[in-house]
Amino acid sequence: MSLVGLIEHNASINGNDKFLHVFTKTAETIELVKSINLSAALSEDGLGSLKLQDQEIRNQITELDAVVATFSPQTLRYINLTLPFNNPRALEQILPGQLQERLPFDPDDFVINFSVSPSSSDNLYDIVVALADKNLIANVLNGLEVFGIDPKVLTTRGACVATLGQFTEATSEETYCIFQSTFDHTALVLIQAGKIKAIREIAHSASASGHNDEALLRETISQIIKFQKDFAVPQFKIYSTEANKLNEAIAKLTRLEVISLDLRSHFQSNLSAEDFENLTWATGILHDLLERKKESDVLNYRIGPFQYRATLANIISSAKEEWFGFSLFSLIGLLCIVAVIAVKPLALLGIESKITTALNSGLPNELLPKRREVNELETKIQNLETELQNLGSLSSISPLESLKELAQSLTPELEVSIEKLSIGSEGMSISGTAASRLAVGRLSTILEEKTDLFTSVRIESGDKVQGSNRMHFSAELVFKT
Length: 481
Hints:
about 475 residues; single chain; 19 strands; alpha+beta; 13 helices; 5-stranded mixed beta sheet
């Protein structure tokens, strides 16, 4: 049985109690197994620091397959860019330079997350970039470590709202908006082709009376209009988890179709109405993790220096979960092998006879020892390859042809200048300059698309050329053999 924990946390362990909610999946619904008050279980260790001393609770945390932790979006910065490529590796190289030109701070101080979707213009892509201060992420993870928690997913509520798209009727290419609000948080996410196009998170000041519906409505309408203007999408559906009254007001003021998104059916009835209302944003990410999906649309900040590393306990737990299916598959495979060997020995003898006949026909003057024909042929082929390689000229034809085809594919606007080139039998190394940081990213995309020439491409951008906008770069390419 898969178990997933959910905790909402900020950079400090002080303040309100921290609850770890534990979920599992029963049939087609998500079930709340328990809620653990972690703060109540804290006590001082011998050095005066707060630690989770309760061994029973620590054991329960260890049994979890994954933990999702969220932090406040108030310190996040969302920036929208349009660039001529969508290759993730190229974007990781290019985005810091693009952001440095637009923002008054050093991008290296931030965890840079991004999502890519098609742009309204040909050959361009819209990139939503989310910046989280590295100190904030470190503080959140350190605060969770006090409870013995190492989350597999660290994100925000708004990013989790994007995963609710799997419960809508939207097509894979459709542009639509998801609207979700609780007493202390509102999220609007614009999605196209299954990817986040824009995201807006609004934190409310929690009060006894909850958030102001009129102020929320104004903010929501304003943001929807901004989506329409910024991305030139005047018409799209809005999927809302809110009550019909608010949905009717949004539909009337925007003249857009608002569809109620009822997620209650995805949860067991043991969840109270209040708990359900406060957890609707997490439905998608809980479903993904409990279904063990390899990929999720959530923006996860466990990247770069904060990369998640599975513990031995997680690996063992996962292995136990899959053991029955693996054992059954292995047993069936073993029975099939035994059946083939035991029931059809004559077929194996027939195959051996055909191999001998084919070899005698193809190599009439070669004497090959019986039942060692394949080994002898492999030795002869390896000797032949060695002789060909020693000829020298033949081994250089493929690299030269690869270099020629590569040169023909470089477009003039990249203004690539090669300063150093090293070619070997297995690959080549290139260093030089290009017109700009964008040109280096474009070059990376072109090289990685040449799958008929290279099996591996690694390109890195360097510093600017002094006195110009040109950028240094270096590339390591491995030939396809």
